[in-house]
Amino acid sequence: MADVSQRRKVLLIGWDAADWEHITPLLEEGLMPTLDSLINRGVMGNLATLQPILSPMLWNSVATGKLADKHGIHGFIEPDPVNGGARPYTSTSRKCKALWNILSQSGLSSNIVGWWASHPAEPIKGNVVTNAFAGVRFDPEKGWIVPKGTVRPAEKGAELARFKVFPNELTEAHILPFIPDAAKIDQKKDRRLASFAKVLSDNASIHAVATALMETEPWDFTAIYYDGIDHFSHAFMAYHPPRLDWIKDEDFALFKDVVKGAYRFHDMMLERLLELAGPETTVILCSDHGFESGSQRPQGTPREPAGPAAWHRQYGILIMAGAGIKRDERIYGASLIDVAPTVLTLFDLPMGEDMDGRPLLEAFEVPPKVKTIPSWETVQGEAGLHSPGQQLDLGQANELMQQFAALGYIEDPTADKEKAAESADIENKYNVARTYLWKNRPDQALPLLEEIVRRRPWEDRFFTQLAVCYFQNGYLAQTELLLTAMSDGPEPDSAGMKLLWARIKLARGDLGGALQALLAAEAMDPQSPGIYIQLGDAYGRLLQWQNAKLAYEKAVALDPDNALAFQGLSNVYRRLGDNQQTVDCALRAVSLLHRLPLAHFNLGVALARSGDNERATVAFETALRFQPEMINAHRYLATINKSNGGNPEKAEFHRNEVIRLTRRGGRHSTGDDARREKLFDLPEIPKRKERLAILLKERPDPKPEGERSGKTFVLVSGLPRSGTSLMMQMLEAGGMRVMTDDKRGPDTDNVRGYYEWEAIKQIGKQPELLDDEAVNGKAIKCVSMLLPRMPAKHDYKLIFMRRPIAEVVASQQAMTTRLGTKGADLESEQLTRGLRAHREDVRRWAAAVPHVALLEIDYPTLVREPLPQISRLIDFLGKDRLPNSEQMATVVDPSLYRKRI
Asked: Is 891 strand, coil or helix?
């Protein structure tokens, strides 16, 4: 699509956890000269992170322009359906195309080095060195050993492996700039120096490989990810100046310069990257989040999965420089999801309308025309994607798991497999739920959080998020009951829970009760900006604008980058009629965090009052993009477009929206709390277990009407070679229509055919397949690995075929031998364990989700005595689905039951 004769080169550099709080003082001291030069010839700004602040999710949002619910990377690890237990998220887990896939499809070459979840390497146009490069090792007899899938093209593996830097190769010259008194450390007792050496050598390795590729390989796009600042910060930020009260003097003296040295080291690496890129290349340098360094540093790290994320700040950095980019200016409101659309725009390629971000047009001297297509996922052509079913090597998975555990992001992977798989599943659903909450979709988060609390009722963090979700959905009684269930007394006993308690009081109009709760929270935690923001909100409801202003200003004093505090101030100044202050505070708020509809609305009001209808229109439209049911924004746009020079059609549209939302009971805020509370109000129950029973078992389904499709599909599944084809034959004989494309006809292994529908393999990427009326009412054969990807808006009757694992393995091996194909490269024992673990995982999934009804049929029993099993099928599916049930037994042929054990 791009004009290759005029295309530019783009260098994307990721510095995990880089933060302006650290960088600015170093720039002022002249200690990061390369970065200073880059800033002076480009634009800079904050880069708002996403929620939850977990690197695998964030860096894949950078690479795809999509949030985690779309790109499919939901944390560090996921359940392993093949081997049991858990495995790292990898490139095979990603559900959509990344930048390098889109660029490959467009004829452009890329170098991708060290990117999160890029392993195993994808077959793109160009070169990939994955985040598993740390596993490269040297064997005295065999030479360089490169883990399978680490380098693509694979033949370059040995050549690039020689750029690996080992910790034992570091000398005093490498270590002393970071830790001048390193010689004083007793390394037998203190592992901190060894941890430091590992991080330094890993980042030096990534840098060496990246510069080698940039120097020797033709490229249009290079993306390099460095985890050094993040890892150095997690290990040594507690020792960073100013000294914290709980840090020993001797530790502070030893390690106080490590983080400062990490930034200077990255500046040195940046110098070589820019030299190789050349001045004609557009450079984007970004980080996924910041890192606490001052008084907000936590005392320790929470002992829970992803606990280290407690150190992460919500703003990373963004620098962009090159031909056609503004010089020495700031840009505002950028987010991680904006990087990919911006890169595509630089290459004059369209962005997908299904991307969640936007091109950063404000960075360009002359903003280019943005091209769009519905989605890159439907564009045909070689995109360098993995072939379906490709999996990560078990040994590499275990190595990556150990690395994540060592960093504190996951639990010990040596624990039993069932526990590991369950933990991974729970954490992933928790992370997706938090993504939905961040997107202001609490309705989608609610079933996930309720399921998690049922499975892990002892973890407060899950209860807390469920309470927040109930509140955001408008279920005040449920929120109140859950908060009291978590407390020893009649009211919450922690500052955080008192904040939510106060919000309930506010929603019910109990302003005095809200203030009382907030003042109690302030006494518990006077250093929390969030408390003062809610105090400001409460004073605003009381029309006490000066008190509200003081509260928001206290929040700003504690956290100068708090977007919600500036949004609150913009609201105060709008109410006081101070247009200039409203504009200033609203702009400050959206420059920090773009997704603030109220701040955009306040900005629009102030601009409209000042006579700037053009900019006011942009502000109101932006507010509606994030909150489409904001009635007052529609009112202003209807008025603006009705005036001279306005757009009558738009005026009519917004006027109709006001009427529609008014009739629905729409409000400036979201939801109708009073109505919902009346429907779902619950009695006070003194015992905690009884409260939870009401909350989680007896509460009416709160989902809005129309969210469910109303369709029920019959699925036939099981492990391959477990009798699924026979079941499809029986259903067909019983009068049920079956969905099959007959692409794979009868053969020796299935003499009556396979009854397959090839398209169902794409259900993860194309959930709309089941919306086709041609599929409705038909039985569908579905491989067991695809079951969790079936769209949750439908209901399913799942017939799951069971057969002894030993028979399944023998049948599969006989089939691959006959066909001359190669199955899983595993010994029979390992394949048996993997199949058993996968089957149990699918059974647990089916039992846990509310939209699946499960019937298990034992294949040997079915063949031996079909009539009782047919009776079970009739009870399960209903006689109306099987009008010819008396014919079902006629298709059962015991002679076709082979490989009996």
From this structure: helix
